[in-house]
Write a structure and sequence with these properties.
Layout lengths: L10 H8 L5 E7 L8 E7 L17 H14 L2 E7 L1 H7 L1 H15 L6 E5 L10 E4 L7 H22 L7 H4 L5 H10 L19
Parallel strand pairs: 1-4, 4-5
Antiparallel strand pairs: 1-2, 2-3
Helix pairs in contact: 2-5, 3-4
């Protein structure tokens, strides 16, 4: 894996800024692989020329630094937003489309409106705003990486709060992902209102 200093995470932003785009937003989501909790997306717009080298894929950053970077991003971004895709939306649309719709919520809630979208992943909704999908974009674009940090910090804190209500599932540490502790609690206790019933939680499980 490349060192942070060797990875140019502003390649795409610089080109777009050079082409005259002023409001380039990075979009990312977290929680797609979880069994419980909402999917969360974030969008971040930086002023042209902004460079914060320590911003990178949220999954590679320890929690303390993530929280610190989240505060720094909020302070230095031109605008940012964090949006939730609810359990109801996930169950109705499926997790992929709920994730894409939640990223679209970010676009709709940003002021000024983005004039270009950098989207983590390989697909997005049909959009009148020009966009580029970047596979592993959270390690290729500073704006996407910033969005991944905001989304993860927000969602982790949300799941830790829910842990206080349902401590048996281990959400304080697994934040809703299918760990052995989480699976064991599902088998023993069934699912809660915060579980995604469109996922295969097991036909034998009963609602708590």
């Amino acid at each position: 894996m490349k060192k942070i200093s060797e990875t140019d995470r502003l390649k795409f932003e610089r080109q777009l800024w050079k082409e005259g785009y002023k409001y380039v937003v990075g979009l990312d989501e977290v929680g797609r692989g979880c069994l419980a909790g909402p999917v969360v997306a974030a969008g971040v717009i930086f002023r042209p020329g902004t460079e914060i080298p320590e911003i990178r894929d949220s999954k590679t950053i320890k929690e303390k630094e993530r929280v610190e970077l989240s505060d720094k991003i909020k302070a230095e971004a031109l605008h940012w937003t964090v949006q939730e895709g609810s359990i109801a939306e996930i169950n109705k649309l499926n997790i992929l489309w709920a994730s894409l719709q939640t990223m679209q919520k970010c676009v709709d809630n940003l002021v000024p409106s983005p004039d270009y979208l950098l989207v983590d992943g390989n697909r997005f909704l049909n959009s009148l705003t020009p966009y580029t999908c970047l596979v592993k974009g959270d390690d290729r674009s500073m704006s996407i990486a910033a969005a991944s940090i905001l989304a993860k910090v927000y969602r982790d804190e949300l799941m830790k709060d829910l842990h206080n209500k349902f401590p048996e599932y281990g959400w304080a540490t697994n934040v809703g992902y299918p760990t052995p502790t989480h699976k064991k609690a599902l088998q023993k206790l069934g699912y809660t209102e915060y579980h995604r019933t469109s996922f295969n939680l097991g036909t034998h499980l009963k609602r708590k």
